Amino acid sequence: MAVAAGSLSPTARAASVGRRSISVWRKAAVAIVVLLAVVLIWEAAKWLGGDPWFIHGTVFGVRIDYEHRPPLQWRIADDLSLPHVWDVTRAFVDPAQRNGPPLGLVLSGQALFTFREALVGFVFGGILGLGLAVWFVHSQLAERALVPYVVASQTVPILAISPIVVNATKAGWLSVALVTAYLTFFPVTIGALRGLRAADPRAFELFRSYAASRRQILMRLRMPASLPYLFAALRIAAAAAVIGAIIGEIPAGIQDGLASAIVNYNQYYVTAPERLWATIVLCSAVGLVFVGLVKLAEAVVLRRRYGTLDVSPGQ
Amino acid sequence: MTESETGRSAADRTKARSTARPVVEVDGLEKTFGSGESAVRALEDIDLTIRQGEFVSLIGPSGCGKSTLLRLIGDLTSPSAGRVLVNGKPAARARLDRDYGMVFQAPVLMDWRTIDRNIELPLEIMGFRRAERSRRSAELLKLVELEGFEGKHPWQLSGGMQQRVAIARALAFDPKLLLMDEPFGALDEMTRERMNLELMKIWGQTGTTVVFVTHSIPEAVFLSTRVAVMSPRPGRIARVIEVDLPQPRTVETRELPRYFELVTRVRETLRRHEPEGRELEEIEASDAARIRAEGLA
Predict the structure, then answer these.
(1) Smallest CA–CA distance from B122 into chain A, residue
(2) What is this structure's pTM?
(3) Which element (helix H / strand E) includes B233?
């Protein structure tokens, strides 16, 4: 049997690395094209059915007078419902308050604050979720008794839970992290529970034939086998964590996070809708970064497992 | 069961074996799955003694309970009646004492471990020191001729190579008994024949006792010192056939007239115990009745 049969030769490996970097570039290009397409459709809708707009001014000594009157009138495309992309972009640069720092900077600070709450809550929720799954997989009684409550916990609106948690703990941003944990443990429990049982039944028999302890089966078989399921669940949890953190901030009365920006710009929506839109963009950016980080961790942890070395940023 | 025309050396070996220590003793074994109306009797009245150094194959049509018998010996399931002793101990005790290694039809390797770490898995669980583990895995990689593959992952190896890793893993802690459940059933014919030769080499070098489940007649005859032919519904050992082919088994073994005789003998034994005639008519009639009933329902 030739030694090279099942192995990757150096040239094959170099080629696969080359192919990988190409695929990263391609993915980045696709992401940019999609973003441009969204902007294009957005502005096309405004072009056809938005409010009229004009440019009067001098650019490099050239006088420009342009007026655009859309042929149709759609409520959804007017400047209040759907501000221009450039207005939203400019909102980031304009000062948040008179003579203050630009809105983008203020929002970034708030996003970072919310991100911290989300991250801490995500870690709490992850540990709780995984702990429950490990417990359930070893105790049918616990599983049968508690899983209905775990499911029920998620049918209660988070908006109703968060004031209770905030009032009971009175721990500022940590209370918010607890609300986040409440929202994130569920997908982790369900995903991990599935994953902890996912190993080949014969692998369990193999461990049985070694007279392996429960702990050894957990650490050497169940856990490694559950990782792909766990990471899928963690990605869902990461997205939920950002929502949980924002919702939790409201009853906690926290002024430093994205929730206060959302509440604030909701009140001034009629005069400055682009600010709320800018806040929305930042909220989703926080979520994307979070999910991206989880995906990156997954790619690092599972990099050698299936021969796919897929390291792609985003979603 | 003894063959009058066998040579002297074979007779000596038979004698030597009859005095060797029994490794597996199966006594009045029964296994029933389910209960009441839907109970299925998988095994009935099984008696079998396997002595040290033997290579015994269990062969029979699907549903004859050969895998169940192997799993009972390995304490992966428990008997409804009767008893199984391994090394003179109840099967459960023997399992806890790690008296046997197990190889399945699929290699069941851990994707997240490299080849050497897969082989070391049982050693880790049994608390061997790191230095000892690496020494053993290096030795076994050599035995199954996979030196140079220790750093690879299972998905980088062919099916035959993966199964060799599974065999190395089963031998890692030096068990005195090897239980193999159709280990080469998923391999193509050529790989299978090569694996048979390698298994014979390993068996010759380690002196391990082997219980081997297969549904390939040539494979059973080529490998075994005895072949237990099983019949279905309920599963029984119909006959145990001595294989008096010379050791070591090599490529030439498959060309010996005696080899063909034994293959024919096993095949005829299997055929004799297939349901046929009246019994087959009854089975078909009841099947037809069931289908009609389902059609009407």
Answers:
(1) A210
(2) 0.78
(3) none
